[in-house]
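Worked example 3 (structure in, sequence out).
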């Protein structure tokens, strides 16, 4: 897993965000291809999604070793809430479209539950990305960073494809300096 942090920013982009971007471009430009090549496109989406989660988990795991004063318990909870919710959504979509094939009698209840868990998941994502910014800046400074000190990294993490080009070189430099 540490290998993910040693890769260059463009390499991380290619294995995590390029598949997701390609799926979105295909979806919006040639929607007819989705039905023809659904397994391939969905596989590319899952690879990109999995690599993005792996990259985030690796950042926290490796930066925690460099900054032992920061606790990651709440981050782990928020990470697994988001991870579980996203896979639950994927599973329920598959179930509804391919297995059940019938509209639910309680669509309002299902939508309300999905809405509540979506809002919870979004809050968890925001917390997690700000926490990663804190960890990266704390590892760079060698002490727990204040809010002002980690604001740039945290905001960069909110825009993953672009922030990746800012964050990954910092991670490379931190790891080079600590090894």
């Amino acid at each position: 897993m540490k290998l993910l942090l040693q890769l260059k920013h463009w390499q991380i982009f290619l294995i995590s965000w390029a598949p997701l971007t390609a799926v979105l471009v295909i979806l919006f430009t040639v929607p007819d291809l989705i039905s023809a090549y659904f397994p391939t496109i969905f596989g590319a989406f899952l690879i990109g999604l999995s690599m993005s989660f792996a990259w985030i988990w690796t950042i926290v795991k490796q930066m925690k070793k460099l900054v032992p004063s920061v606790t990651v318990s709440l981050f782990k909870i928020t990470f697994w809430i988001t991870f579980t919710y996203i896979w639950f959504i994927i599973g329920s979509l598959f179930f509804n479209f391919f297995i059940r094939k019938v509209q639910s009698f309680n669509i309002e209840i299902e939508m309300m539950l999905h809405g509540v868990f979506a809002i919870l998941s979004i809050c968890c994502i925001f917390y997690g990305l700000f926490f990663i910014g804190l960890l990266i800046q704390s590892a760079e400074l060698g002490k727990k960073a204040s809010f002002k000190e980690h604001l740039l990294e945290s905001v960069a993490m909110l825009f993953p494809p672009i922030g990746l080009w800012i964050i990954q070189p910092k991670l490379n430099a931190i790891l080079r300096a600590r090894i």
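Notes: The mean pLDDT is 85. The longest helix spans residues 107-141.
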